[in-house]
Amino acid sequence: MNYRHAYHAGNFADVMKHAVLALVLASLKRKETPFFALDTHAGIGAYDLASVAADKTGEYLGGIARVLAAPDPPAELVAYLDLVRAWNRDGTLRWYPGSPEVARTLMRPQDRLALVELHPEDVEDLRRRLGGDRRVGIHHMDGYTAAKGLLPPPERRGLVLMDPPFEARDELSRLVRALAGVARRWPTGIVLAWYPIKGRAAVEGFHAAVKAAGGRETLAAELLIHPDDDPFRLNGSGLLIVNPPWRLDEALAELLPWLARTLAPGRGGHRLERLIAPRSGACASP
Ligand SMILES: C[S@@+](CC[C@H](N)C(=O)[O-])C[C@H]1O[C@@H](n2cnc3c(N)ncnc32)[C@H](O)[C@@H]1O
After folding, report:
1. How many CA atoms lie within 13 Å of 208's alpha carbon, on the beta-carbon side?
2. Confidence (pLDDT) at 281
3. Which of 130, 149, 192, 256, CA to CA, is 20 to 30 A from 268?
4. From the alpha carbon of 142, which atom of ligand 1 is closest?
5. CATH code of 17's domain
C-alpha cells in the first residue's frame, strides 16, 4: 500500500468527485428521513496543502486553487465551494476537506456515515479527526469487504462512495465486481465509483463490463484535462453514478463543461453518458 492521497488532495479529480458528492448529499437531504453514507476508501479525512506531500506535487494548484479563483462558478458548485471556504476562513487556501469531511459537514444529526480505510496510519488519522462524532463509524479493513457487511443499511436510503487508489492492475475489474455486489445487496442505493481516465480503450472496456453486468440506471460523468490518447498519463477523472438522484444529469450538464473550461482551457473536455437507462417506473432512493 504505497498510495497516499496527500500528494493529490484538491487536484482536478478531487474537485469533480467532491462537487458531485456534495450534489448527491443535497439530493438526499430533500427528504427528512435519515440516510446512510458509506465511504469504502476514505483516506485521512482532510489535507494540509502546506504539507511536504501536497507542496511536492502542487496538484491542488491546478484543481481547487484554480476553481476558487475563477469568476462566476455555476450554482451547482456553490455548496462545495462554500464548504472549502469554511475550512479556510481567513481566505488563504491551506486546508482541503476529503470525502469524509465533505460528507460529515453536509450530513444532518439524523444521518450516519461509515468510513473504511485499510492503511494503518491513515485510519488512525481518521479516528483522531472524526472519531468523536457519534454519527460516524470508522472501520480498519478492506473497503470492498466492508461493503458486504455494512449493506443494506437499516436507513434504506443513501449512498456508497468507492474511491480506490488504483494501485492494483485489475482494479477496474474489481470495481465492476464490487458494483455488482452492492447492487445485489442494496439495489436502490446510490453509488459513486471513481475511475481514472488514461487511454480511451481501457475506459471503453470498463464501461462495456458495467453494461454487461446489467443493473440500475448508471451515468458515466467524465472530466478531461488532456485528450484521452495517451494511456500512460492521467488524462481525466471519471465517476460512475448508479441510481442517480432526480435531475443530477441536468446538474452535471452544467457543472462538467464549466470545470473543463476552468481547469483545462483549450485542451480539456467532458463527457456525460447514460450507460444504463432507467427501468420504466423505477426511481432512486432519495
Ligand atoms: C483515492 S484515496 C481516497 C480519497 C478519499 N476518498 C477522498 O476523496 O478524500 C484511496 C484510499 O484508499 C486506501 N486504500 C487502499 N486500499 C484499500 C482497501 N483495500 N480498502 C480500503 N481502503 C484502501 C488508501 O490508503 C487511500 O487512503
Report:
1. 6
2. 56
3. 192
4. 20
5. 3.40.50.150
Q: What is the rounded radius of gyration, in angstroms, for the C-alpha atoms of the chain? A: 17
Q: How confident is the model at residue 277 (pLDDT cuts 50, 70, 90)?
A: very high
DSSP character at residue 76: G
**Number of domains comprising the chain:** 1
In whole angstroms, give the CA distance from residue 118 to residue 46.
16
Q: Which of 14, 39, 111, 163 is catalytic?
A: 163
Ligand 1 centroid to Cα of residue 30, in Å, is 29
Which residue lies with its CA nearest to atom 27 of ligand 1?
A: 43
Q: Grid coordinates representing 1? A: 500500500
Q: Is residue 192 part of a domain?
A: yes
pTM of the predicted model as reported, rounded to 2 decimal places:
0.97
Total residue length of the chain: 286
What domain range includes position 244?
5-276
Q: Which residues is 197 bridged to in the sheet? A: 236
* CB neighbourhood size of 273 (10 A): 11
Report CA(279)–ligand 1 centroid distance (Å).
32
Indicate if 125 belongs to the active site. no
